[in-house]
Amino acid sequence: MAHAADIHPHAAHGHHEEVSWWRTYLFSTDHKMIAMQYMFTGMAMALIGGFFAYAFRMQQAFPGMDVPLYGLVTPNKYNVLITNHGAIMIFWVAMPVLIAAFGNYLIPLMLGCDDMVFPRINRLSYQIFLLSAVILLVSFFVPGGAFAGAWTIYPPLSSKAEYGLAPLGSSIFLVAVALEFVAFLLGGINFITTAMNSRAPGMKMYDVPIVVWMIVVASILFMASVGPLIAGAIMLFMDQQVGTAFFDPDKGGDPVLWQHLFWFFGHPEVYVVLLPALGIVAEIITTFSRKKLFAYKTVLYTVFGTGVLSFVVWAHHQFVAGIDPRMANIFTITTLLISVPIAEMLFVYIATLYGGSITLTTPMLWGLSFIAEFLIGGVTGIFLGASGSDIFLHDTYFVLAHFHYTFVPIAIIGTFAGLTFWFPKMFGRMMNETWGKIHFWITIVAFNCIFIPLFITGSAGDHRRIYNYMNFPDSAVPWLQDLRVFATYSLVVMLLAQAIFLVNFFWSIFRGEKAGKNPWRANTLEWTTESPPPHGNWPADQLPNVYRGPYEYSHPDRKEDYWPQNLPA
Amino acid sequence: MAEHAHAEAHHHPNYIRVWAVLLVLLVVSVAGPMIGVQWVTLVTAFGIAIVKAYLVAKNFMHVNIERRFVVYALLTVIVFMLLFFSAVAPDVMKKDGRGWEKPSWKTAPAAAPAAEHGGAH
Amino acid sequence: MSARPIATTRSAAGLPTGRLAVWWVVVSEIVIFGGLLASYIMHRLAHDAFAEQAAHTNTWIGAFNTLVLLTSSLSAVLAHQAAERGDGPKAARLIYATIVGAVTFLVVKGFEWTFEIQHGYTITSSTFWSFYYAAAGLHASHVVAGAIIMLFVAKDAARNQELHRVELIGIYWHFVDIVWIFLFPLLYIAK
Q: Is residue B117 part of a domain?
């Protein structure tokens, strides 16, 4: 976590005491440092989650053979790998990087404040988050093994010992998830309060950059949806450890209740991670097409609409779980409806690009690819949202390919887009463009080569969460296995290509070309301060005032093609 | 940082009187079931709970003079909870925890595709 | 670095940041308790056996605890009134009274649960009792948390410091009270 001194230990607003190394790096209350902490923790967890994917895909491609760097993947280990890959990627990579890291870094800067409203609670939220990550990692080493019941934790597989439940690991997993929720509830309150209350003078609601709105709405969605799952996790923990029967039908409980509790949160959760990624893309495409966002208010209102709708679609994950068929009708309609506002947003983005003066920098490449790849994910979701076709496709690899075509753009493309875009601000230096583009192309091509074959194998009937397809005569056919092997090789290529990014990232921190305040010539407030910003972001008496919206690019009244928000004229 | 621009300091309700009303309601809600009529019990128990909650929210939490959006946020999440209940109750309440069983498969003879996909579990 | 950032002093939404944050805490807590209570109500309505088990809860103790919490809410709001008038020491005394209420509640609950457990109504006896202990337990943990925070707030208030926090912990406390207002009929009365 300690990297080149980018946070000035001397506070810009009047403190003259020397701040110790501990206070600067490990126990900081500065939002930028906390953002870095979340970022690096998330990136480290991404390596672990990616490694798990490598191991289980190798098992699928070459069943029964020792996986290099891992060993033999037994059936139980396979289940542990897929379970924790999913949980890690969603809870310990996507959420900390997209919401906590970018949110913490950008919100005070873009709103013209010196920090978050509650810096010490901010620090506490990171500490709880770190604890949750450590606890999850501990679960891999306890006797009885790690939790292996899939990231959706359905009982009775996740509650009854006779189904092979890891006695300690399963409860430790639940504790880790619960702590992660607490960390994000605390963090979310900080974001929402800061955004609502602490805007720069003159910054009206419609002058707030879209990415800030998105992160705030995402925090609200999270806060309003996670409660039932916390209640459910408490109930499941008690079923596991105390012997209660909340989800045991033999004793009056109901396992489907868990599914509802989980997915009532689980579906808004995907929008919780989607919105920040959409926000990042909005900032990037406006900057690199030198055009204002085509319809700011439309985007805002569709985000609100998506947020509300996201609360009434959850049972589409349960179409074949034996829910009331009348519910399935209703949820089909709402699920198909929710594709409309998202499509609307993508149309707005495309309209923003149309006629713009486009520069294909690395961040812009990532931003454009987000639109293309997410579109595939969204469109394939329609097949799954219609309960009729879902009867065939549920729990096949089609579902998996669909959600990777949504999650990878969100968590991977969105992250790289944001990192390459704001790197100059964060570290005061530029990343290497050539290597950035090489990394981009290899990653994107490899990504598609992994998951397009999986759409095909899924439609051909490949079930999810299967340890060895050779046990299934219908699946053990050569052309399907060829596709699985091809997907696995592509994954290896994609993972190896990330080394390019890591080298570029760390090398550029120390040796990159120095960046000024505003290398991209963008409008928002974070570009008006030093790169990297000092503690307090601006000198205490020079916090910016705002005079216009964030997307005034190529304004006819102005000679320059951008018009920063803080300039009076 | 006590920058309260609230007018409430001047128009606040008599808190002790509110408390007394709450106590009376409590007594009624305990006495209600003793009458033995079920709908009376429900009204006194839950109706009074709602009234009590409203009184506490209005008079003690000062929701009524709070910014409007606080009321909207609170009402929204309460609506979400009602939504959650109404969508999940048909499953949990009617099926007795065994909604995934197909009774017709139990009675049909071994014509059902017997290939038990054993899988790896 | 304990100076408040300038961000904390702004108030574009028209209310102080502390109070805004406490309302969002209440919003998230409504969903947590809402999920648990909705699950309980579903089971309760679906299984007549629950009603049979519920007959064994002690309505008088429940009512007494309701009285205790309502009174503690009174002292909390009176503390807020005192703090508004700038009378920190009085606010602190009233907060201590609220804490006494919280402790009374917990002690009574301790005796109640001990009695019930000794008579065989444990958390695993039936799903009703699982919900009973889970819901009341979750509520009790919030009572404990509230009491602890109140200790810190009272200490500062006694020295006329951070008086705005009296109102904030009061809002949280009233919410905890409201949860109990609903728990009481759900667990004790509907028989």
A: no
Residues B18 and B34 in one domain: yes
Range of the domain at C84: 12-189
Number of domains in chain C: 1
Q: How far is CA A200 from CA A89, A110, C9, in A?
A: 35, 9, 12
Any domain includes C5 = no
**CATH number assigned to the domain comprising residue A144:** 1.20.210.10
Å between A161 CA and nearest CA of chain B = 14
What SS3 class is residue A461?
Answer: coil
Task: Flag whether C4 is in a domain.
Answer: no
The answer to whether residues B55 and B17 belong to one domain is: yes
Q: Does some domain include residue A21?
A: no
- Please tell me the total count of domains within chain B: 2
Compute, in degrees rounded to 10, the torsion defined by CA atoms A485, A487, A493, A498. Answer: -140
Q: Over pLDDT 90: what percentage of chain A?
A: 88
Decide if B80 and A326 are in contact by the 8 Å CB cutoff. no
Pick from A362-376, A477-491, B33-47: least confident? B33-47
A513-548 pLDDT, tens digit per residue, is 999 999 999 999 999 999 999 999 999 888 999 999
Q: What is the pLDDT of residues A300-344, one digit of tens each?
A: 999 999 999 999 999 999 998 888 888 889 999 999 999 999 999
CB C180 within 8 A of CB B29: no
B1 within domain boundaries: no
Instruction: Give the closest of B80, B98, B118 to A249, CB-based.
Output: B98
- For residues A248 and A250, what is the distance between their CA atoms, to the nearest angstrom? 5
For residues B107 and A208, what is the distance between their CA atoms, to the nearest angstrom?
A: 63
Kindly state whether residue C84 falls inside one of the protein's structural domains.
Answer: yes
> Looking at the predicted structure, is the pLDDT value of residue A451 above 70?
yes
Q: Report chain B residues whose CB lies below 8 A from the CB of C160.
A: none
Q: Given this model, what pLDDT does residue B104 score? A: 60
Residues B22 and B41 in one domain: yes
Question: Are B5 and B65 within 8 A, CB to CB?
Answer: no
Chain A residues in contact with C21 by the CB 8 A cut-off are 117-118, 189-190, 193
Domain that includes residue A421, residue range? 28-542
Evaluate if residue A215 carries a pLDDT over 60: yes
Look up the CATH number of the domain holding residue C83. Answer: 1.20.120.80
Query: How big is the A-C interface in CB pairs under 8 Å?
Result: 146
In a domain, B46, yes or no: yes
Q: Which chain A residues touch B121 with a CB distance below 8 Å?
A: 75, 79, 164
Structural domain count of chain A? 1
Whether A5 maps to a domain, the answer reads no
Give the confidence band of B116 by pLDDT, cuts at 50, 70, 90: very low
Q: Tell whether B50 is covered by a domain.
A: yes
Distance CA A276, CA A97 (A): 10
Asked if residues A451 and A404 have their Cβ atoms less than 8 Å apart, the reply is: yes
String of b and e for A343-362 (b: at least 16 CB within 10 Å)? ebbbebbeebbeebeeeebb
Average pLDDT over residues A456-468: 94
pLDDT per residue over C149-178, tens digit each? 999 999 999 999 889 999 999 999 999 999
Say yes or no to pLDDT of A437 above 80.
yes
Do B28 and B44 sit in the same domain of this protein?
yes
Residue A487 and residue A451 in contact, taking contact as beta carbons nearer than 8 Å: yes
- The residues with which A396 forms a beta bridge, in sequence order, are A463
pLDDT tier at A164 (50, 70, 90 boundaries)? confident
User: What's the CA gap between A243 and A462, in Å, rounded?
Assistant: 36
Report the SS3 class of residue A30. Answer: coil
Range(s) of the domain holding residue B80: 67-95
In a domain, A382, yes or no: yes
Residue C70 has pLDDT above 70, yes or no: yes
Q: Do A256 and B95 touch (CB under 8 A)?
A: yes
What's the whole-number mean pLDDT along residues C47-59? 82
Q: Is residue A210 part of a domain?
A: yes
